[in-house]
Specification:
By secondary structure, the protein is mostly helical. The chain has helices at residues 2-25, 33-61.
Length: 71
């Protein structure tokens, strides 16, 4: 279950960062649109991989996520 929560957080962070990056990238318009999508999605995914563990640990500390010890 904890892996599912982690993947959900990762997906939400990727979508959030991708939306923010697209919002600012559309204003430039000096590259082709597909290039903007690929570059911004890749950057958002990488940034989400760094931010998701921090958010996951914070959610555990404030007890919004209960992690059961493995048996």
């Amino acid at each position: 279950m904890t892996q599912v929560i982690y993947i959900i957080i990762l997906s939400l962070m990727t979508i959030l960062f991708f939306g923010i990056k697209i919002f600012f990238a559309i204003k430039e318009q000096k590259y082709f649109f597909i290039d903007i999508l690929i570059i911004n999605f890749t950057g958002a995914l990488i940034f989400a991989f760094f931010v998701t563990p921090i958010i996951y640990i914070i959610l555990q500390k404030i007890k919004l996520i209960h992690v059961q010890p493995s048996t």
